[in-house]
């Protein structure tokens, strides 16, 4: 029998581990333990079936991580690779698990209290420093291994992607085939994984075991009295929940700050416009239809990046179209000194041949919109200069084109020095946002036992301290113009991997007769 697995298991105890990775010994962090063990007093440790191992600390003896957020091993077992557990949950109807778990022996740390090494305690950032927090997590991980089970497992996790479920699907059905939309994945760990038969695999476990179970404790549980423990705990919780790529972690953490919509509700004019000089322009859809007034005020947010946009119906009658911007209260730390004060405006009316983008909202003789995309002007970039341009303001405009009124979009851009765009894409529909539904994985255990029952979906939980997080209250009967305007929020947040998107462009569009927004999001990196 090979004793290599035993030596690796003993050496892994006390090391850091990233819970977002698959549970394998090769993913342990670093060469040294993060906790102090008594390495002065050692003994020979007898492992049944594997013999005796010398110079083992007396704190090591031979004899699942709870929570709703799936671990890295969970994702690896079921083949989830989207980067968003909410997206995986939405695309999977049922989950099942069946298999054999054979444990040959356990090794664990038997020392209380556990004490972190001074190197680890001193590496904890005392302030909210995204770069330092990301370096800590990348170097030490999120948890510490305190116990390992060695043996083998033959598991068949089942991911049931039933897109058109039927009530009788799981009743009196002896077997479920692939045509029902079911994916069955078989997984072995330990033993000879090349054999297909369980009977052939079983005798090979003793000679070719592997680590199949891990026991962890959070690193933060051993940081009592250490300045910055709260910041590290918050960063690790965000990392485990949303699982951004480790290379993007510093940017992801930097963007998890408070956001708000501009203009704020107190700034919205609810009464009629008194001055005739300030009368707002209006859009006409047909001969007998209602007018849609347009708020042409500029909405700017200073030097704070924008993470979302929406069209909104303002006023007491909800008949005034406006544009709102979601932005950070304070700029991210990495961009704080890089966003310049100067603003440059660019609109769809300035697009060459913009008349080719004019589309009637309803009738051709009445109001149109310009669907030309608004982007920054490449002429703003100086030769050899590293800079990116992000949106920091927006405005709706109504202009005349021949005998028609045309709705245009203008955007204000700010220069971000020493940065560059690494990826961009357009968000076409608000449904692309992955809503975080809590309790999904807590309810899957009984899904296969009970018959299929159509359940009413619970209302989405809005985590917002605002009095009216979705907008000021309005009478239901005043929402007639919603059939002409799509007021969905086009925003991206932590659940949209890698979680640090910024708005760099937008355009107006028509979808099923409704005026709507299309927003261009980009990822920025700082030049090294």
Concise overview:
The protein contains eight helices and 27 strands. By secondary structure, the protein is mainly β.
List the helices and strands and how they pair.
Layout: H1 4-12, E1 16-17, E2 28-29, E3 42-47, E4 51-57, E5 60-62, H2 72-78, H3 85-91, E6 94-96, E7 99-109, H4 118-122, H5 130-140, E8 143-155, E9 158-160, E10 182-184, E11 187-189, H6 198-201, E12 210-218, H7 229-242, H8 249-254, E13 259-262, E14 282-284, E15 291-294, E16 299-300, E17 306-314, E18 320-328, E19 344-347, E20 358-360, E21 368-370, E22 387-401, E23 404-417, E24 419-427, E25 490-491, E26 501-511, E27 514-526
Parallel strand pairs: 15-18, 21-23
Antiparallel strand pairs: 1-2, 1-8, 3-4, 5-7, 6-9, 7-8, 8-11, 8-12, 9-10, 13-18, 14-15, 16-22, 17-18, 17-25, 19-23, 20-21, 22-23, 24-27, 26-27
Helix pairs in contact: 5-7
Average residue-wise pLDDT: 80
Helix content bin: 10-25%
- Counting DSSP E segments of at least 2 residues, the number of strands comes to 27
Classify the beta-strand content into a percent band.
25-35%
- Computed CA radius of gyration, to the nearest angstrom: 29 Å
Chain oligomer state: single chain
Major beta sheet summary: 7 strands, antiparallel
User: Which class best fits the helix and strand makeup?
Assistant: mainly beta
Poorly predicted runs of 5 or more residues: 162-179, 434-454
Q: What is the overall number of helices?
A: 8
What's the shape?
elongated
Cα(first) to Cα(last) distance is 50 Å
Number of domains: 2
């Amino acid at each position: 029998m090979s004793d290599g697995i035993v030596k690796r298991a003993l050496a892994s105890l006390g090391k850091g581990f990233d819970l977002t990775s698959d549970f394998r010994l090769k993913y342990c962090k670093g060469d040294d333990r993060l906790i102090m063990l008594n390495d002065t007093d050692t003994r020979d440790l007898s492992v049944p079936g594997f013999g005796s191992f010398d110079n083992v600390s007396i704190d090591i003896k031979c004899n699942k991580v709870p929570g709703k957020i799936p671990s890295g091993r969970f994702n690896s077992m079921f083949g989830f690779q989207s980067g968003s557990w909410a997206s995986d949950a939405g695309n999977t109807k049922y989950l099942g698990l069946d298999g054999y778990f054979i444990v040959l022996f356990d090794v664990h740390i038997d020392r209380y209290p556990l004490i972190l090494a001074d190197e680890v305690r001193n590496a904890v950032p005392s302030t909210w420093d995204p770069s330092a927090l990301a370096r800590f997590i990348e170097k030490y991980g999120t948890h510490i291994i305190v116990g390992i089970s060695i043996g083998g497992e033959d598991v068949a996790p089942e991911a049931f992607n039933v897109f058109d479920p039927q009530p009788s699907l799981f009743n009196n059905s002896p077997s479920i085939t692939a045509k029902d939309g079911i994916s069955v994945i078989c997984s072995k760990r330990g033993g000879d994984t090349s054999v297909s038969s369980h009977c052939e695999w079983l005798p090979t476990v003793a000679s070719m075991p592997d680590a199949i179970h891990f026991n962890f404790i959070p690193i933060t549980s051993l940081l009592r009295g250490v300045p910055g423990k709260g910041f590290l705990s918050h960063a690790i919780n965000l990392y485990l929940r949303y699982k951004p790529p480790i290379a993007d972690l510093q940017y992801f953490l930097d963007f998890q700050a408070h956001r708000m919509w501009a203009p704020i509700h107190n700034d919205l004019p609810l009464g009629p416009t008194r001055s005739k000089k300030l009368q707002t322009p209006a859009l006409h859809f047909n001969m007998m239809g209602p007018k849609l007034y347009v708020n042409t005020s500029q909405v700017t947010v200073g030097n704070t990046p924008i993470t979302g946009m929406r069209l909104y119906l303002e006023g007491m009658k909800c008949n005034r179209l406006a544009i709102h911007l979601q932005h950070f209260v304070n700029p991210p730390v990495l961009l704080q000194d890089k966003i310049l004060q100067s603003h440059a405006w660019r609109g769809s009316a300035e697009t060459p041949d913009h008349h080719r983008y004019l589309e009637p909202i309803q009738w051709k003789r009445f109001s149109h919109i310009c669907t030309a995309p608004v982007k920054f002007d490449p002429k703003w970039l100086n030769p050899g200069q590293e800079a990116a341009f992000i949106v920091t303001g927006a405005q709706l405009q109504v202009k005349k084109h021949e005998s028609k009124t045309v709705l245009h979009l203008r955007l204000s851009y700010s220069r971000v020095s020493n940065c560059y765009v690494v990826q961009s894409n357009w968000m076409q529909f608000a449904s692309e946002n992955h809503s975080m539904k809590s309790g999904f994985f807590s309810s899957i255990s009984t899904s296969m036992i009970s018959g299929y029952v159509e359940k009413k979906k619970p209302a989405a939980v809005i985590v917002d301290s605002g009095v009216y997080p979705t907008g000021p209250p309005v009478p239901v009967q005043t929402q007639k113009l919603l059939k002409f305007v799509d007021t969905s929020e086009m925003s991206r947040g932590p659940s949209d991997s890698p979680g640090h998107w910024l708005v760099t462009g937008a355009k107006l569009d028509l979808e099923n007769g409704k005026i709507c927004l299309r927003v261009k999001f980009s990822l920025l990196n700082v030049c090294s």
